Structure prediction request, 533 residues.
Amino acid sequence: MKRVLCLLLCCSYVLGYGQFAGTTTDEEEKVARSLAATITVSDLQNHLTTIASAEFEGRETGTEGQKKAADYIANYFKQLGLPAIGEDGTYFQRISFIAENWNNIELSVNGDVKRHMWDYYAYPANNADRPTQDFKEVIFLGYGIDDTRYSDYKNANVEGKAILIYAGEPMGKDSLSHVSGKRGATEWSTDTFKKLRVAKEKGVAMVFIIDPDFKNNVGTARRTILNRRLKMGWSKNPADNFANNVFISTKVAKDIIGSQYKKVVKARKKINKKKRAKRVNLPTNLSITMEKNIRQLLGENVLGFVEGSDPAKKDEVVVVTAHYDHLGKRGDDIYYGADDNGSGTSSVMEVCQAFVEAKNKGEGPKRSVLFMLVSGEEKGLLGSEYYAQHPIFPLENTVANVNVDMVGRVDEKHADNPNYIYVIGSNRLSTELHEINEAANTTYTQLELDYTYNAENDPNRYYYRSDHYNFAEKGVPAIFYFNGTHDDYHLTSDTVDKINFEKMAKIAQLVFHTTWKLANRTDRIKVDVLPKR
Prediction:
C-alpha cells in the first residue's frame, strides 16, 4: 500500500501538483497559504471554549443546550456576512424525526379478546390516540368507496359509528371496475388512505378493513409497528386527515358479522353484480382501545454558504460538515464533547472564515461551498441523513463532502507523534479526491496520513459511522478526518483542557487546502470507483 501511494505521489510531483489534483502556480500557492494562516490556535480556542462550555450542557439534540449552540454558530455566520439561506430567512435547516408506538392497544368482540399482530394490526402513525370506545353496532359498508360512478355512502348515516369494509373495490366481469368502468384497479384499491380520508369526512369513528391477504401482510406490518427507530418526518395528528382504522383477519370479520353472515355475503354479491351499494347493520358488542406514545426529535442543521465566483461553476457545491451535537446531560453530569465534536465544529467554522476572507479580497472560490454544522449525529447520523433526503442544493451538483469529526486529541498509537490524522473514505468513490488530499498535505501541512481505518475489513467500520456516509451512500465522494478514540471518548471528561490546539489548527488547515482545491480546480472530480458495502 505504501509503495503504491509513493508511486502516485511521485507522479503528482512530475505533473506539478498532480494530474488528478490539477496544477498550482506559485501565486496560487501563496494565496492559499495566506488564507490558511487565518486559521489560528487562538480562534479555535475561543470557539471551542464556548461550544464545549457548561452553558451549552453537552448539546444533546432537541435540548436547550443544542439550541444555544445552533444560535452561536448561526450568529457567527451572520457576523461573517453570509446570506441566511435557511428556512424563514434563518441559517437553519430544521430537522424532525419521529417514532410512534402503541402503549396500549386492545380489541374485543363479544367478550373475546383479540391479539394484536395476530388477529388484527393497526399502524400507530396512521391512527389518533383514542381512549376506550364501545360499539353496540358495526355497519357493513361494502368497500368504503365514495365516487361519482359508485358510492357505498349514498344515503348512509355513519357519523360517530364504526364501519366494516372490504379492501379493494367492486369488480364485474372481465375485471371491469365498477368505479371507473375500465379494466383493472383504481386508486380505491391501491391507496387505502383514500378510503380513510372519505371516512373521516363522513364522520366515521372507526374503520375495520378486512385484509384478504392477512397472513402475509401482518408479518410486514409487525416489522413496521415494532420498529422503535426514529424515522424522518414531522408529527402530524392522523385525526386531522383519517378515520381511525384497524386491519382484521377474515376470522375476526366473521366474529363481528356474527349471525348476519349470509346477509353480508349476499350484499357483497349484489354489489359486484349489480353495481349497487348495500349496507348491513351488524349488532355486536365491540370494544377498542388505541393509546400510543409519540417520541419526536427536533433539531437544526446550521448553514454557512459561500457562493462561488465563477458563473460557470458556482452551481457546483462542496459541502463541508461537522456535527455539533453531543450526549448532553445525565442528571447533573455534563458530557462536554470538546473533542467529539466541538473540535470538528470549531475547525469548520474557522475554515469557513478563511473562505469568507478570500471572498472579501475578491479571491473567492470558483465553486460554491456550503459549511454545514449538523445535529443528530449522536442519535444515528440524523442531521446529515435529513440533508441527504432534503438537500438545499441538488446532490447531483454536489462535488464532494468534506467531513470533520474529532480532530483535537491524540490517540495511543500516535502518542509520540501528534501531527497525524486518520483519513477515511477518500478513495472509496474517487481516486481524484484521494490524490487532492495527499498533494495538499505534501505541499502545505506534512501530517502523517494514517489510512488504518479506511481498510475495507476495518472492524470498527468508521467509514459508516459519521456524517459523510449519508453523502457517500448517495454517490457523493466523501473524505472524513478523524483523530481516533481516547480514554475520554463519550465521557464527561472530554473537556477543552485536554485539546491539542496546535494539532487541531494543522488539521483545520489541511481541511481548508483540500476544500480550496476541490472548489477551484478546473474540472470537477470524477466518481471513478465502484462503491462497496
Remarks:
- Confidence is low (pLDDT under 50) at residues 1-21.
- The chain has two domains: 2-83+307-520, 99-294.
- The chain has 14 helices and 17 strands.
- The CA atoms of residues 340 and 489 lie 7 Å apart.
